[in-house]
Structure formats: structure tokens, C-alpha cells
Here is the input.
Amino acid sequence: MNTGLVLPQIWKEIRRSRSITICGGILVFVAVLAVMGPLMSPHSYLTTDFDGRLIAPTLSNFHIFGTDDLGRDLFVRTLMGGQITLLVAVIASIVSLVIGVAYGAVAGYVGGHIDAIMMRAVDALYALPFIFLVILLMVVFERNFLLIFVAIGAINWLDMARIVRGQTISLKQREFVDAAKLIGVPAWRIIFRHITPNLLGVVIVYVTLTIPQAILVESFLSFLGLGVQEPQTSLGALVNGGVSHMEQAPWMLLIPAVLLAVVLLCFNFLGDGLRDFFDPRQEAK
Amino acid sequence: MSLLEISGLSISYPGSAAVLDRLSFAIERGESLGLVGESGSGKTQTALAIMGLLPTNARATGGVVFDGKELLGRSERTLNLYRTRHMGIVFQDPMSALNPYVRIGDQLNRILLEHGLAGDDEADSRSLEMLRLVGLPDVERQFRSYPHQLSGGMRQRVMIAAALIGKPDLLIADEPTTALDVTVQAQILGLLRGLRHDLNTALLLITHDLGVVAGNCERMIVLKDGKLVEEGMTPEIFAEPVHPVTRAMLAAARRSDFLTRSQERTPNDQKPVLEIESLAVSYAVPGERRSRKRLSAVRQLGITIAPGETVALVGESGAGKTSLARAIVGLLPVQRGKMVLLGKPLTGRVESRSNALRRDVQMVFQDPAGSLNPAMRVDDIIAEPLTVHEPDKIKADKQEIVAAMLRRVGLDDALKKRFPHELSGGQAQRVAIARALVLKPKILICDEAVAALDGSIRQDILELLRAEQQQSGLSLLFITHDLTTVRQISHRVLVMYLGRLCELADTESLFMRPKHPYTKALLDAVPIADPAVGIIVSSDLGEAPSMLQPPSGCAFHPRCPYSILRCSDDLPELQDFNKSSAACHRAAELAL
Here is the structure.
């Protein structure tokens, strides 16, 4: 198989891979549940109920996942947290996809001094201590939901740009790029019409592998208290809350932790599956 | 009892038709058998089955009996007792068969040690002896070299040494010379003949080239789609081929014998399409950027190409053929000299040329799959040149234009929605030709455009190019290392050696009366598809010198059997003869 697989074909082949189908299915299910679940529950994620604090999971009154220390329904809060976590993942990966691919493809294709300058800029950004940067951002601006996306995306696109640049450099030496130049195709069109579509395989794989990273970073920030702010929540924030009530109410920790683990595992397996799928050595399957 | 007896061997892979269908043949001790067929006929699968190297998902049934013992389905350990000691194999691409991180000597030593053929103390001397036997020059130094430091021909010699080091009874050579230049091919084939004679090894020679079989195999079998279609003594099959496949292959191999285009030459007094004068192209040598050392790929080269004319450009790999082509189209910068296209100067890199200039010079590349964007459909590929040059026109009649182009290059309209990987090599090359022709160029440069294709498909593509030329008066610059192709397509031939022009001649006079000793050497090296002719034992040219340090004077003098003292000092000027010109001091006096 060559590096340039194309979407319809990928789709047909992909469904033959079990890890991709199962993990993809679970993720879609989680996403749908996270969006629909809170609508179906009679509870709201911010209504507190001081008479119903730390209720263990029960069917009565629809507290299927129990309640937290403020009496808020954990089912709704966990799914809300899931929403935020998935949203972070999606936005971070879109940011890294758009900026990273464009930046890397341009640097790799143009080459020479421009490439050198562009990549040194990436190196410089890499050198910034990320957590320190986030804390600084949180202090300078007020704690803001959007800032997390910005921060995570700003880190992820660096890796993407490096990978895309490397691939572009090898692609631009292929004969079809020479052929395009001879025909008279302008540089921008070569980049977007000839190079980028052929990066797809690598990019898809890399995106699925950065998503769990983004989720972990968000969870980590929320766990430190730097992430999503109450009454908004994310899986990381819920785990943080659960830790402090671990002994009286283990479900507060376990349920979001398990969901987080499932989501992370699925993304990782999905990435692995896709990586195997795009691996040239898989040709003889 | 035969040395190797294959009976009813079938091989299939899950989800596809059988690649080999009940194949039966035998090889006697010391015999040489040619296994001939086009790509996909199951030749290599047969070799892999004999060596026990089939992929794990292959299903093989039947019998592979070596010296009375069944090999099919045996364990790796049992098979290893046979490999090296009883059977050796040489693959097509020596670079991928050698471990790039291990020195040549150690690769051979490992084989000896692994198979218990020699102890630590004698391994070195045994390996050296073997390398000497296969004629590796400067053995002591090469013994310590890595594979990438050797030329293709030397690597193939190392592979042969590795295959023969255990003194096997059977040597399998799978297209051993396909990746090599004709001159090197002749050397390697000569080496195999000599070794076979000295070591009394049986040889299974797998090839698509009937010329190779004619001079090297006593008996031959022909495969087609995994089935054996013809078997017999080589001279008899060549004299009276029975199966249509064999006949077609023979006809293709011999077509050169009666087809020359010199006669149908168009009057040459028209204004030339392309004029090149004392062109020089050079590269910065990788890793030597600081010292500004440059490699001269093309030096002092001049040529004119008339409308409707085909000029073939031949020479060994590294002669600068591709550099010249890339300089003309503007993919490589020109150092000195000038190029003129229809009266307008052709300068600068392709990005800086005007659209009008660009569309007049188009190119078809060697690897048809590699030159088509894998993510674009056939119709978009063919239409793309016009979306750049004539966007309004293509918006309006894309469908009609694509359909017309597909018809013109002999492709079915149904292919237009396919992706390149869904096309065969020949179809892909037709698409590449359509893409080049849609701009109505004045000159089309074909860089080894048919080298990757099988015999009959190669003929079809050449036919297409010729028809196209007759219709539109297109000029062709046809780069190739295959002299048979040259004979079929070209009016004139330009022979290059180490970046310089050696000989420029009408095709017919070049083949009949070569003026330059290098041309003569190239011609002699081509295997002839006729067992009766036997082998022309050409003088062993040895390895081509490095482009980085070309020899003084005439660059060919160290390899030239006719060289005199003057050749090593003076650079020969191009001398004109009747219908040809050659850069050789002795061109006038030699009768080659």
C-alpha cells in the first residue's frame, strides 16, 4: 500500500478491522449518550439538594449514578463532563489538524530558509514549559473555558506540524509532484491538491493518537483545579471531586474514572488500529 | 532421479484466484532451465515455493521434491538444512536483499557460520575466496564495505557469492539482471555461465527476457497466468514455438530485427523544435555543500530536435540522461549553455517559466503509478492541465475532453472514475500520456517510459506514441537503456557517457555502423533472442567510473579496448561522418 489512500476506499477497508469498528462504535455511543442523556434525566447538572447528598447509585428518583456531596445528580454530571471532555478532544484535534497540517505542508513544500525559520519557531514554542504557560494564562486572563482549548490546541499542533512537514518533504520528491509542476500547477494548488490529500493516512492516525493526549491534559488541568470551573465540569474535574470523598462515596470516583478510562482506551485502540491499517506491512493481510 | 522435481504445484492466496496452477517440471543435475513469463505469471512464486519462502498465508499443494525428499510443508529448520548447502537464490534487487547495516564480508561470514560451513578462523578466507570467484574488483577493500558503497553490478556479484558460498546443487536466479544496465547484465550473465560450468551447479533462471534465455539455458519452460504453456529445448522452442503466448513473446523480442524508422524520416529542413547548445548541468554533492564540490551530470552537450522527430537518448545509468531531461523541462537548474524552444529561450526553473513555454514541453515518467497522484481520479488527472491553462474551457466541457483523451490513448471511458492504484501499469502509463498530450505540447520527453512495462504492453505504448506523433507532428525525446526499444521508435540516437555526448547518429547507421567504441560495446551487450547466434563474448568493460572523478581525456578510455595514449590526454571533438557524428579520436580509422 502506498501512503496515499483515499477516503471512500479507506472507509470500505476500515470496516474489516475489528478494533476500529468496536472502539469507534463505543465512542459514538458515548458521544450520543453524553449529548442525549442529560436531556432524558429529570435532574439538572446544577440543582443542589442538601437532603439528598452522597446517595449511592439507585433506581429510585433516577439517581442511577448516585449524587455528589452537594446532592447533584451524578448521572447528568458525568455525562456533562463527558461532553466537555469530548469537546476538548475534538476542538484540540481540529486546531492541531488545521494549523499543523497547513503549517507543516507549507514549510515542507517551500523548503530552504522559509522552512528553517518556520521550524525554528516551532522549536521555540516547544521550549515553553506548558503547565507554566497555562497557569500564567489563567492568572493573566480570568479562568476561562475557552483558554483550555487554546492551550491544548496550541501544544498539539506543534507535533502535527513536524510530522506533516516530514511527510511533505518525502512526498514532494515523488514524480506526481514533478508532473504537476510541468503541467503548470501553481505551488499553492500543489500543496492543497496534491500533497495534503496524500497526507491523510498519517494525519488521521496521528489525530486519533493526540485526542487521548488532549483529554489527559484537560483532565490533568481540571484535577489541578486549573481547568473547567464549577458548576461546569469535566471527567477530570469529577475524578478530582471523587478523590476527596473516596471513602464515603466511592462511586463518585469510580464512575467518571471508568468512563474516562473507557474513552481513553477506545481512542488509543482506535489509533493503534488505524496505524496498523495504514502500515505498509499490513498489505499481505 | 532428477535433482528437483516439481509436480502439480498449485499456490493460492485467500480471496484471490490461484497464482500457480498444477505446475510440473524437473531440473537435472548441472542443467540450466529457463523459466519465462510476463509479470504475474507465477515465476517468482515458483522460486519462493522451492526455497520455502512463501508468505504464511499462501496455500501451496503438490510436490516439491529435491533430491528425492519432499520439501513442501517442511519446518523452517528442515528447510534451512537445504538452503545454502543445496539451494541458493539470487533476487532481482540486490540492494534490498543485502542487509544495509552489515559489511559485505560479514554478510558472507554469517552465512558460513550459521550453516556450520566454516569455523571462525576460516570464514574470512572462505568469503574472500568466494568474492574473488565472482570477480569482485578490489576484493580486500570491498570486503569491508557496506552494500550502499557498491554499484548495482557489484552488489549482484555479492549476492551471487552469497548464494553459491555453500556450493549448492541448484542456483535459482530470479530476474538477476533486470535492474542492471545492459553492459553489466552481459557481465553478470557471463559470470553465471562460467560459475555454473566450474561448480557444476544446476541453474533455474527466471526472466521475462527471451534474449537472456537464448544464450544461457539449455531447456526452457513458459508460464502464462500460473500455467505451464510450453516446455522444451531452447533452440527448438525458438525455432518452432507452439503456444500463442510464446509466439507473441518471441515476435516482440525479435521485432527489432526488421523495424527501423530511419527510412520514414521526415524531411529535416524545418525549423528545429528544440535546440540545445553546450549545455552543462551539475549538482551540489550531498554532504559536500561546504566545499562547493559539484557533480557534473551533463557537460558540453548539444543537440537539435526537428518537428515530428524522435531522438532516443541512451547510455548506462549515471550517464546523465535523466539529468538532461530534467534540465530541459526545468526541474534541474542549468549551469551553462542555452536551450531554445521554437525560437524562444528556455531558461530558469519550471516555476519561473511562462505558462505558454511550460505547456510546450511535457514529460512522461518511468514509474506510471508514481507519476499519478494516488488521491486523484483519472478524469481529474487528465483534466488538471487544462484547469490551469484553460479554466473556462475545462469548466464547460470537462466530460467531453476527458472522454476524447481517453479514446485517443486507447482507454475505456469506464476507467475515468478510477484511482491510479486501480489501474494496471500499462493503463496508468496511458493516463500519464493523456495528461501530457492534453496540452498539445510541441515536444514530449519520455524518461524510461516503457521500462517498467511487460513486453506486449510495451509494444502497445510505443505504438500509441508513434501514432500520436504521426497525427500531431509531436517531437519525442525518448530516454531508455533498452536498445530494442530504440530501434523501434527513434529516428536518431544520442549516446551519452558520463555526461558527454559520445555518438549522435541515424538509428540505422548507429546499429549497422557504430562509430564510437562505447556504442559498439552497448550493442554487443544486448542479448540476442536467437540461440543459434549464441553469445557474442564482448570485452568485459568492468565498472563505470565515478561521475565525481571522471577520467581525463576521453572519459571512456579506461574501459575502451581501442584506446591509445592520446585518449587519456585529449578530449575528443565531435567528428561528423555520413549520417552520424562521434566523439572519438579513432572514429575515422576504426571499423567497428
Observations:
- The longest helix of chain B spans residues 182-199.
- Chain B has two domains: 4-258, 274-582.
- Chain B is about 35% helix and 20% strand.
- Chain B has a mean pLDDT of 87.
